[in-house]
Design goal:
425 residues; mainly alpha; Growth Hormone, Chain: A; globular
């Protein structure tokens, strides 16, 4: 099993900022890449209004992106093991630049949905390889690397809506063109800062990620993440629509891209803070499994609160930001658990887990628009709540396979006992 001796909080504090240049280069690119997720959020209502699209059609902007991302991730370890991590990262960024620009130049929601799918392919090549690259190259162990990766995710998701709101206030096309420019900057940064690989990658078989699902621990965590993403993307993708409706009902005549950008910026900041500062302390104190149970349950309760107060603007805003606090812990702890649960190569574990996770994320937005049209604005939140409770059930059912993810607690107890013995001597 992978070493977990870096789980203690003091070690993380001492090492997390002392990273090789390659790690910072990839982390910088990750921030920009993850901006693409939240960048579109503030302009969803504007796209719906300006292009005459239904809410269900607009939700497909997330579905096409996430579905292609998830399916492609099953093959990214095969690709990166043959052309190398750097080329895979650059190819992913180049695809995002092209398809983001094409989405901005589109004249129909159908064209945007199609180009978002191409964007998802680039996203898959980049994100899965970036996680494996950071974990493999980071100083301070896997946990410090994952915290850094999740911090980049949170920072990107926080900045994305803010920038999307600013550019979306000019035109709904602005965020797409803005993403293309930022990704081009990230591409140049990686070309300059990411050095040549020192080792030739070991080729991974095409079927490696599918065979990895035979591992009970990875399958359990992957399915947990799949249903967890029902909650995550019900909150992220659907919330702009009830927020806009609640704001208008509350008498706010102007509640558009700028305001939505600020709400989801606060959500992203909350996510980033807990992923870096809270998750390590909770796992050190209570273990990863207990932390996952607690966060999934709290998120399910939160989704139920949002569903029963879907017409209240301030409940929605406060609930979304609080959700970011729980989601930050979940993302970090789930990713750490996947990396520690098996002896599989990190690239294979990352690709497999990410593939299952994003496929789950693609289903939630597609359901949200259809269910809301039939049952009302609260329905997507109830679906998210059901998904989160299902994730709790899956985690509990597979609990006997997940003992390795809490091995750090055993090591910590042994180290503390040894220190006391030495002191007594």
């Amino acid at each position: 099993m992978h070493s977990t001796t870096t789980d203690s909080v003091p070690t993380e504090k001492a090492s997390i900022l002392r990273q090789p240049r390659a790690v910072w280069a990839v982390a910088f690119a990750c921030v920009i890449a993850f901006m693409g997720i939240g960048l579109v959020d503030p302009i969803l209502p504007a796209i719906s209004h300006d292009l005459g699209a239904t809410e269900a059609q607009t939700m497909l902007l997330f579905t096409s992106y996430l579905l292609v991302t998830g399916l492609a991730m099953f093959f990214t370890s095969f690709v990166s093991s043959r052309i190398g991590a750097k080329r895979t990262l650059l190819a992913g960024l180049a695809l995002i630049v092209v398809f983001a620009a094409l989405a901005g130049a589109s004249d129909s929601v159908g064209m945007i949905i199609g180009f978002r799918a191409g964007w998802g392919l680039g996203n898959a090549l980049f994100i899965s390889t970036a996680l494996a690259t950071i974990v493999g190259a980071a100083a301070g162990g896997a946990d410090s690397a994952i915290i850094l990766y999740e911090a980049a995710l949170g920072l990107g998701i926080a900045i994305g809506p803010l920038l999307g709101g600013a550019l979306g206030g000019i035109s709904w096309r602005g965020p797409f063109f803005g993403t293309a420019v930022l990704m081009a900057i990230a591409l140049v940064a990686l070309l300059v800062l990411l050095g040549k690989p020192t080792e030739k990658p070991t080729p991974v078989k095409l079927t490696a990620t599918f065979r990895a699902l035979r591992h009970p621990a990875l399958l359990t965590l992957g399915l947990t993440a799949l249903f967890y993403n029902f909650g995550f993307f019900s909150l992220l993708a659907w919330s702009p629509f009830p927020l806009e409706d609640a704001a208008h009902a509350a008498g706010f005549s102007t509640f558009g891209a700028h305001q939505l950008g600020l709400v989801f910026c606060a959500w992203g900041i909350a996510l980033a803070l807990t992923s870096v500062f809270v998750a390590p302390r909770l796992t050190h104190r209570f273990g990863r499994r207990r932390t996952l149970y607690a966060m999934l349950t709290l998120l399910a309760v939160l989704m139920a609160v949002l569903a029963t107060n879907v017409e209240s603007l301030w409940v929605l805003i406060v609930g979304i930001v609080i959700g970011g606090l729980f989601l930050g812990v979940m993302n970090t702890v789930l990713t750490e658990s996947v990396m520690e649960a098996t002896d599989l190569p990190r690239a294979v574990a990352s690709s497999t887990y990410s593939g299952v996770r994003f496929v789950g994320g693609s289903i939630a937005p597609a359901l949200a628009g259809v269910i809301a049209a039939a049952l009302g604005s609260a329905a997507p939140y109830w679906v998210g709540c059901a998904g989160l409770l299902t994730a709790v059930g899956i985690l509990f059912a597979g609990r006997r396979h997940l003992a390795p993810i809490d091995a750090h607690l055993v090591e910590a107890t042994y180290d503390e006992a040894l220190a006391l013995t030495v002191a007594d001597s």
